[in-house]
Specification:
This protein is an alpha+beta fold. It is built from seven helices and 17 strands. It is globular, with a radius of gyration of 20 Å.
Length: about 325
């Protein structure tokens, strides 16, 4: 599919220059110097191609270097060769909805096509190293990350965490963009006024929080992963995850991991996560659902990091 030029907006995020015909206010904007960017985002009519490739009642079409998906009342999206994202909005589609999928599922798919591992969670910078907080939707990842920001640490990424291996097989986290998404309950717990923030699309109880002043702009080595899980018990627990369970944990929390197999990336993913496990600590962090524990969980994480630092220097 050919790209029409020029496009209107130039951004930098996920380690790439992004040339886009839709404004993405979440991303840092940079001057347009040329049309030679790492990622292109463009509106295009994908309806005929979708009808030709996808069967009835199908929401995803996936093969090597090509991922398409259809969101009812929103748009058809296509990501190809780790370079291009096309979107085909339906009538009355809201721009907020489009941006949600462009920066989420589309970007996660594009990173996988580039063999950049996208973990689903938040990454925080602590003393020159990156620590990822992963978990299922609703586990409290962003809330815990926000509690750590309150302690003066910095955000690297929220939602999609891009990870690559350097020449020494050290996992490196590349910054995404300076924004968090927090539920209203979390805002209230932190004493933040919801009328000062933008609601995310029509979900009036979740808000976009700009983190420009506490955002890391350079890649950092990944030192640890904390899997946050909810528990009906009242106690908090932090336990190391051992052996093959570590690889399983990283697979479970790879962003849109159902893209991996049909994209022909299972061998790459396994090899990458095995190498990661040789270099990082991975923990399971259980939190009670009965009360707000983000500050206490922060203490547990910082204690574990300090303990590892004393053990290994």
């Amino acid at each position: 599919m050919k790209k029409s030029i020029p496009k209107k907006y130039h951004f930098n995020a996920f380690g790439f220059n992004i040339l886009s015909d839709i404004h993405l206010p979440e991303l840092p904007q940079i001057p347009i110097t040329s049309n030679d960017s790492g990622i292109f985002i463009e509106k295009s009519d994908l309806s005929s191609l979708w009808e030709a490739l996808a069967s009835d009642n199908q929401f995803f079409y996936i093969k090597e270097d090509l991922i398409m998906f259809r969101i009812p009342d929103n748009a058809i999206y296509m990501i190809q060769e780790g370079k291009e994202i096309f979107y085909s909005p339906f009538e009355n589609a809201k721009e907020d909805h489009l941006r949600l999928y462009l920066l989420g599922t589309c970007m996660g798919a594009l990173l996988l096509q580039r063999k950049i591992l996208p973990l689903h969670g938040s990454a925080i910078a602590i003393e020159g190293k990156a620590y990822a907080i992963v978990g299922d939707s609703g586990a409290g990842k962003s809330t815990l990350a926000s509690a750590m920001l309150k302690r003066g640490y910095q955000l690297i990424s929220d939602d999609v965490i891009p990870i690559t291996l350097n020449e020494k097989n050290t996992p490196i986290v590349t910054p995404a963009y300076p924004q968090q998404k927090l539920w209203l309950d979390s805002l209230n717990q932190f004493g933040m006024k919801s009328n000062q923030y933008r609601p995310i699309i029509d979900r009036e109880t979740k808000f976009a929080i700009s983190i420009t002043n506490q955002f890391v702009s350079k890649p950092l080595p990944l030192a640890g992963v904390f899997e946050l899980v909810k528990s009906e018990k009242d106690e908090m627990k932090l336990n190391p995850i051992q052996s093959l369970h570590r690889i399983h944990t990283l697979f479970n929390h790879t962003y849109r991991n159902f893209f991996i197999a049909p994209s022909g990336l299972m061998k790459w993913h396994f090899s990458t996560t095995v190498k990661m496990c040789e270099d990082i600590d991975i923990y399971k962090l259980s939190r009670p659902t009965s009360r707000f524990t983000a500050h206490n969980l922060t203490d547990l994480i910082l204690s574990a990091i300090e303990k590892e630092k004393k053990l290994y220097g």
